[in-house]
Amino acid sequence: MQIQSAARAQKYENAVPSLLSENVESEVKLIGIARTFTKDQEIFGEGEAADFVYKVVTGAVRSFRILADGRRQIGDFYLPGDVFGMELGQQRRSAAEAVGDAVVIVARRATLTADPDNADRLWRHALRELQRSQDHVLTVGRRSATERVARFLLDLNERRGAGVMLELPMSRQDIADFLGLTIETVSRTLTQMQLDDLIEVSGCRHVRLTRRAALAELCE
Amino acid sequence: MQIQSAARAQKYENAVPSLLSENVESEVKLIGIARTFTKDQEIFGEGEAADFVYKVVTGAVRSFRILADGRRQIGDFYLPGDVFGMELGQQRRSAAEAVGDAVVIVARRATLTADPDNADRLWRHALRELQRSQDHVLTVGRRSATERVARFLLDLNERRGAGVMLELPMSRQDIADFLGLTIETVSRTLTQMQLDDLIEVSGCRHVRLTRRAALAELCE
DNA sequence: CGGGCGGTTGAGGTCAATCAATCAGAGTGG
DNA sequence: CCACTCTGATTGATTGACCTCAACCGCCCG
């Protein structure tokens, strides 16, 4: 890892609180170094030592695993305020990359777990990630392509706070690898949603959820 | 929940240690009441209060969620030694049922989290569940039916310790709903594996992994 | 022996994948 | 400013893996 090269960066203390502020009490306070990653830059790789924990300040991060033949599954996207990179063991079980340019706070894992107060927050955070992962299993295991895409858009919309306008930080390929689909299927599904007046797409990175309720009905 | 009705049951202290004894240090010590559930009996339902944590003594347990139209996704199976039922919030986000007859230790969640020592173990346990869930996302999102079934058999085989002989506590429907397949596909896949001399099936609940290495190659 | 449940097998259909071509937008250089 | 390229997205045609529907089997139990 190239953490050392971030020595020049300034210090942050919980610079950007999560947008989901109902959960303030379980907010992880990361004290560490801010580091900037460029688009597609590796934050950590599978199998590396898991000595650091991260928190997104700006941009987005994807965690993923790749099979020998190249198939990729994105476990989750992390948005500003999200913590990622906590592991049970000493090794990374998945890799992480910046989706676009991203600023991330880096903290020593040992420092965090030493403070029991922070340890408790990390624990709650792990359970929240578990929830998301379990939701994702249901989505990928039992939902149709349309339902998966609808769910993805609504989830992103909720997490970004915000109104009906939605900016997608990630490519179609990223979305496909997140939802267990192909890029073509994602594309087709989005155009179909446009034809059904569920969304408006402008420039492939901007989606307007014109009929959010109808979209929600698609995936119960 | 029908926990109260278990008052007659005797007390256990960590009656059955996990078979995966490399992780002894993170072993959750549950002190609680042993309760017997019969086949398909509900242990807890979605939306109920999450006041208890459980540990399997004998038998097997499935946790699952069901969509409005009946599609079911099994999140995981819990085998003797496994802890389940820990939640972030106050409500159950999934249901749990006994796969066959099962004995389970029931402990008050509040009691467990009060002891910081136990809290730490629970935390590690949550991360282990997270690992399993993330593995499952990869399996269900990106692997073929054959790869999924192979993975399921090998995983079960590892967890039960044991040699090449494997007893399946769950039905084909359970396996299908776990792997995101249909019962027919699971059945076909198993017979194909038999034809390929990868496994021997006797009586639909007993599988012999005759060529485990070849089976492992199927899913990398 | 018969009935029932769970599992297997078969035939046909469907949804998403694959293969392939085209298109749109962002840079790049002349 | 306009070709040119390159990358990512869209669209179309076809294939294929898995699902659906349906029949059958086999084991268990009365």
What features would you describe in this structure?
The structure is a homodimer of 220-residue chains. Helix content of chain A is 35%, strand content 25%. Chain A contains 6 helices and 12 strands. Chain A has helices at 109-114, 116-142, 145-159, 172-179, 183-195, 212-218, and strands at 11-13, 31-37, 42-44, 52-58, 61-66, 72-78, 83-84, 95-98, 102-108, 165-167, 200-202, 206-208. In chain A, helix 3 (145-159) crosses helix 6 and helix 4 crosses helix 5. Chain A is globular. Chain A starts with 10 loop residues before the first strand and ends with a helix. Chain A binds chain B through residues 65, 67-68, 71-73, 75, 86-88, 93-94, 116, 119-120, 122-124, 126-131, 133-134, 136-138, 140-143, 179-180, 220, and chain B through 65, 67-68, 71-73, 75, 86-88, 93-94, 116, 119-120, 122-124, 126-131, 133-134, 136-138, 140-143, 179-180, 220. The first copy, chain A, binds a DNA duplex (30 and 30 nucleotides) through residues 144-145, 171-173, 181-188, 190-191, 203-204.
Give a short synopsis of this structure.
Two copies of one chain form a homodimer. Chain A contains six helices and twelve strands.
Secondary-structure blueprint:
The structure is a homodimer of 220-residue chains.
Chain A: E1 11-13, E2 31-37, E3 42-44, E4 52-58, E5 61-66, E6 72-78, E7 83-84, E8 95-98, E9 102-108, H1 109-114, H2 116-142, H3 145-159, E10 165-167, H4 172-179, H5 183-195, E11 200-202, E12 206-208, H6 212-218
Antiparallel strand pairs in A: 1-2, 2-9, 3-8, 4-7, 4-9, 5-6, 5-8, 10-12, 11-12
Chain A binds a DNA duplex (30 and 30 nucleotides) through residues 144-145, 171-173, 181-188, 190-191, 203-204.
